[in-house]
Amino acid sequence: MSEFFSAVVSGRANLSVASLPATLLLSALPHWYTIYLAESNKVQGGWTNQNPRAFVARLNVKAANGKKLTDLEETILRGQSAQQNGFEWWAVWAVAVVFGYLAKLPAAEMNRYTLIHVGMRAVYNYLYISTKSRRGSYLRTAVFQLSLYPAVAIFCRAALALA
């Protein structure tokens, strides 16, 4: 594993392929953070790892029933949503990377798309967890839309190259 990280840092690894495990980990970070928040603050008695989806569902039910969530509970729900969005979007990115290489797109171009994608996903996670206002949520949405660009661009470039 250390050889992998060393190769990425030194530029000897394929950056877009290396972004696949990196974006999986990036997607999981909000989940780990919210587990920490729930445990350290004993939200609902602490994180219930035996059935984590039930833990999140109970918070959603509380909100759906019109009960006011604490700021911490809202942060936990946003973190879990950020995680879910990351895992949902990961497959699209992975397919884009594969199509980029099937189409033999230049490595520099793939690297540029990769840096944009990973950077935007990191900013998106931060905004998803920290944004508390409706107005602020529009910035998060704009960042999400920007994070779509690299995959869409790769698909378009691959469509032209593979015609």
Automatic annotation (TrEMBL):
<keyword id="KW-1133">Transmembrane helix</keyword>
<feature type="transmembrane region" description="Helical">
    <location>
        <begin position="141"/>
        <end position="160"/>
    </location>
</feature>
<keyword id="KW-0812">Transmembrane</keyword>
<protein>
    <recommendedName>
        <fullName>Membrane-associated, eicosanoid/glutathione metabolism (MAPEG) protein</fullName>
    </recommendedName>
</protein>
<dbReference type="InterPro" id="IPR001129">
    <property type="entry name" value="Membr-assoc_MAPEG"/>
</dbReference>
<dbReference type="InterPro" id="IPR023352">
    <property type="entry name" value="MAPEG-like_dom_sf"/>
</dbReference>
<dbReference type="Pfam" id="PF01124">
    <property type="entry name" value="MAPEG"/>
</dbReference>
<keyword id="KW-0472">Membrane</keyword>
<feature type="transmembrane region" description="Helical">
    <location>
        <begin position="87"/>
        <end position="104"/>
    </location>
</feature>
